[in-house]
Amino acid sequence: MDRLCDRQPAVSPQRLIAQLVPPPTFAEVSFASYRPDPAEPTQAAAVAACLRFCDEAVR
Known about the structure:
- The chain is 39% helix and 0% strand.
- It is built from 2 helices and no strands.
- The termini are far apart.
């Protein structure tokens, strides 16, 4: 019997990103439309980090 820990699946970043679908509540929003709270600088930093991650993931 195969063990789950012995498996090494290979999935491309493009396939992973394509399968990330937001719930309907967030279907019409994007990083570009998000307005971080100026009093919470970590919100803007999180948006920037997510944008960098997405850019790197699809290269």
